[in-house]
## 1
Amino acid sequence: MTNFPNCPKCNSAYTYADGSGFVCPECGYEWTLESSIENNEDTKVVKDAYGNVLNDGDTVTIIKDLKVKGSSSSIKIGTKVRNIRLIEGDHDIDCKIDGFGGMQLKSEFVKKA
């Protein structure tokens, strides 16, 4: 009996081969072996403007005045942002900035403090 990989979605062991891919009969998820290998690779590494790797909980400093959409004021250069969270997407930092509240930033406009 051939051992097939567990389902990446529901971790079911009852998967079977279907052509060049695999199928999970419990949740109906279909995938190829190449896509399961790609999903197991390291997650995206977020770097600041100077190439330093950023992690959740880091403190960063703004390196450029940033206009805030919907506000007449801007975030000034040198503003420290504490306890950042890394997220997927174009704006890859989620944080709270004193005086502005919750906001998302691009990592290219910050440096690790």
## 2
Amino acid sequence: MRVLLLLPCLLALGGCNMLMPRHDPGKAWIELNPQVPYSLRAAEVDKKALDEHRFFQISPGAHELGMRYRFEVAGSNIGPGSAPYERNCLIRLTYKEFAAGRRYSLEVGEVGFRPWAKLYDDRRQVVASGRESGCSSGA
């Protein structure tokens, strides 16, 4: 009986992936690869807000990507006995050679209070690095 109750939930989760659009071969596709349990979401392209926050799909050429990255700074990076501190940062990344039909991967991380981002091409070569463009605490 429990299996019957679990089955619709599993099917619904699998259906979420089907909501991703097809890759347009005339555009570059940028996948977001967050490091669990942190959160990364697409925010803007060329300073224009996006409706879809799970990926970027853009025309070939030069673009500036903006993404929001939330992470927690360990208390040990702040001082003895300090509680963890949550950061919510906007990271901008500029790349001049996005190519149609190519897939790119955007990865993020942090060192202490500072976030970083790297854009990889489909050969796993780093083609661009992001820069912090402002952070706040919490959500």
## 3
Amino acid sequence: MTTTSPPVGTAVAAVCAGFGRDVDENIAQIGTLIDQARRAGVGLLALPEACLGGYLSVLGAGRDGAHDETPEDLPPVMDIDGPELRRVAELAGEMTVVVGLCESDGTDRYNTAAIVSGDGVLGSHRKVHQPLGENLYYEAGEGFGCVDTPAGRVGALICYDKAFPEGARALAVDGAEVIACISAWPASRTASSESIEHDRWTQRFNLFDAARALENQVVWLASNQHGTFGKLRFVANAKVVGPGGDVLATTGTGAGMAVAELDVPGALATARRAMFHLRDRRPEAYPSALATAEPLAPVGDGRA
């Protein structure tokens, strides 16, 4: 029996794979993943956070805690208009790809997600929320916004951003049809489980994905790193979540690609037909203090 691949653009996908410091090796791996996605008819592919050059190898004790990285250990810096993203864009062709890198503006480093296609860089997002000492080596981004792509209107978040509903909501209000949250989400540092499946940070990762998709009624792509890097062990669980909060495809605890064939506009229309959360918001009832309040002091020892 002869089988054919579905047309390009009828599926979305999120990757779980390990990436280190060798950028040429990373790009070769990205090319293989894009080829795999193309054969599956994928029009929008989310790769992991820091897949160009790797993530930090350890997270510190907190915003005022020690961090074991040295400058020589840090991810290589790249320009948003540099050769690395040009190579990824060439590989992407007609596909839209969300890719993670350490961006430099010539002065500061940013943990960045770039949205690219064969036309080049369509948009980018600098990670706003920084966990566990990440702020010692990266500056924080300052906002959220979507871009129009061949795969529809897409917004990007990075890892810890997903723990804050305001970011995903800002993208949804900006018209996001799909939100790609790319991650290097590790297992818990304390009270850790031998089983990634039962680790409490795995549970949080999965809960955030379902909640952010459901509350905003968007298609949600959650990519993640796989395996270990330095002292970090990643929870995997790349997935595609529908606008009803239902997991349509997942890699579970393994490496791979979660692919879901999906009519995105049709899925959104169905989810929003009766109760449309964005329409039914009451912004005038929400206190402005939500945006301006001073951060609360941590309770206890701050361990995660």
## 4
Amino acid sequence: MKKLSARRRHPLAAVVVLLLALAGTGGLYTAFAPASRAKAEETAQSLAIEEGERLYQVGCASCHGTEGEGTADGPSLVGVGAAAVDFQVGTGRMPAQQPGPQIPQKRNIYTQAEIDRMAAYIASFGPGPAIPAKNQYNPEGADAAKGGELFRNNCAQCHNFTGKGGALTYGKYAPSLRGVSDKHIYEAMLTGPQNMPAFPDSVLTEQNKKDIIAYLNAVNGPETVNPGGLGLGGLGPVAEGLFGWVFGLGGLVVVAVWVAARTAKAKRS
């Protein structure tokens, strides 16, 4: 009887064994699962860069160099970042049809997946602005009035007051912003394409950029009308004043001359 009692297990022995098993399983998962996930992500990134390099060599290397170092026909791409690639290729400006003072927007020839791979490859040349997430450029809840103030202070000199674009020097121009996607407007402010200066977050914060996008959507939306009459291109008070002087005052002068001529003719008769 005493021998059987000595062999009897403690009531908590099964619980202790179960806890040890769970702890061991959790430790093994912690040790190996993150490494496997990180390795899978690294592999996917390597494959994206490899595919991006293939696309780059076909469509970009002739102007920008085989490793993005730049040539006489195209600038260096070292450090431009993925956001610049997403903007330039996503709006069809790149690959360019021909060199010139301004590369116009045209139909895009790449899918978004191809653009992402090309951006990953060019981003590997050096650190630069990343492609923004949707929450960074989504203007929902942004202050359009504040955006209008920021736009007039920083952008209207080239794009005019409502973003309809304008001429610059030596054949360059500021393009119209009507119909441009929120993401591409954000990327343009972030990277400063072609003749445009860059506005990093140290100059215009992420919220500032959202406010500007909200303003442009408000003044260039499909439901936008000109409650005051003819919009005159949205060029602002100078153009409107000039229109008033030339046509308004000119019309009054013509009417005055006509009345004076009829009055003189009536007196002679």
